[in-house]
Design a protein that fits this description.
The protein has 532 residues and is α+β, with helices and mostly antiparallel strands. The chain contains 16 helices and 31 strands. Helix 7 links the parallel strand 4 and strand 5. The longest helix is centred in the middle third of the chain and has 18 residues. Bound molecules: guanosine-5'-diphosphate (GDP). Pfam families: EF-G_D2 (PF22042), GTP_EFTU (PF00009), RF3_C (PF16658). This is Peptide chain release factor 3.
Amino acid sequence: MGARETDVPYEAARRRTFAVISHPDAGKSTLTEAIALHAKAISQAGAVHGKAGRRTVVSDWMRMEQARGISITSAVLRFSHRDTLINLVDTPGHADFSEDTYRVVSAVDSVVMLLDAAKGLEAQTLKLFDVCRSQGVPVITFVNKWDRPGRDALDLCDELATHTGLQPMPLTWPIGPAGEFHGLLDCRDGTMVRYQRTVGGATAAQEERLDPAVAAAQEGPAWSRACEEADLLDASGGGFDHELFLAAEASPVLFGAALLNHGVRHLLDFLVDFAPAPRPRVDVAGRPRRLDAPFSAFVFKVQTGMNPAHRDQIAFARVCSGVFERGMVVTNVATGKPFATKYVQQAFGQQRTTLDVAYPGDVIGLVNAAALRVGDTLFAGVPAVRFPRLPRFAPAHFAVARPTDVGRAKQFHRAIAQLHAEGVVQVMRSQRRGQGSAPVLAAVGPMQFEVVLHRMEWEFAVPVTLEHLPYTVVRRLADPSQRPLVDTGWRSEVLMRDDGTELAVFAGQVELAVLQRLHPHLKLDHLVGGVD
Ligand code: GDP
């Protein structure tokens, strides 16, 4: 064993790998900046995401992304806070493009769920809570924009408990209603934290700590109300319980205003003190892979064309065990082929740096790794290890794809297969449509179709047309012999995925209900949590 192998337990224990997930506009980019600012990854907010045209600064790798100003792909921001190494895995924040976000959940050890104080839980956030729960990923809730008028803090916690089943455990509580933000009650020691405003949130906010008696004298009713509300939650089981958090049964709640950097330090400190460090990942045989076993990792994202100067492909892999050293030869379990890792990078936005060593919890970017696919396991040494494939998510949008130039059918099928393998879109077949018919593309969000259109035209030179299908209700067909019942139904059909899953899709609830009335023995399963 080289010196570095013996470092693994220490290095793994001081890593925190997490993602910030939210509904668009809740403030994810702003919070990312604020976190990085506190952790001194950058000296001034705006360096990661420029204030003007923020999104284009973060990831301007794709023309479409620039044109629409949305962030489609993920990368990683790495920094240290109190001797802990933090990997913040960025997620696409667009409501319509969520399959990538779901996959990121599989690659992190905890998630910060960001809520807008005025909006609370939005549909997108709820779906993501489901995904986190179904994968057992602990969730920290950060209620943002408390400097703006918004909802009642207790109401928001109620909503969290009712809709997610997660017990809210406040760590900080706002003093003053949303829009009259006086500071925070630190629920752990009962003191008040007051902030000095900084110009435009460009530097970390100065904090002042006040004893409870001083806070009571200065803040009057706002202080006593905050204490009463926090006590109320505490009495109903909302006291902090580390085990419940790690078991993804309760969610610590913090309040703040990312734009002003208020409440952000508490979030970071919580991540360092209580968020889980990397834990052994279970392989397909159900055996946990020890952190100090030889190197292993799995690919959770493949991205093409990040560098506009020359179109390249980068595969992001999460290290699960051992030490990764640049240049080492690893094996891709899917192909059984060895694979040299000369070009490895850390990437966030435009800045890429070469990475030499990585430990469990780190994310490595393998450049020009054309053979790598989402879900692939990489390993070194013997014996081989294979991690379970990443969950695929229940699609909600369907379209038939056809090449505009029928003479390019072969290139069309090859390109579609590649997009499927990369996880850009799911490709399905329908018996009803017949053998050799055009494939049906299925997506979690319609943005995925736009990526397909764009890449087919610009990257593969096979422009396609999409015929959108009207399906909105999706079930799993439990008994394949019942396929004809659905295929002959009114505005419904069965779509088959390459892994054998058969999805029964319906234009709406009415069509589903009619078919069920006609065939009461038809067995259809719900897709729990949007994940199959
Ligand atoms: P994202 O889409 O989730 O990444 O959201 P952004 O970080 O781009 O923020 C959306 C908008 O909300 C921007 O105009 C931000 O300036 C604003 N914003 C973010 N955090 C706060 C906050 O704490 N207070 C206020 N008042 N505005 C905020």
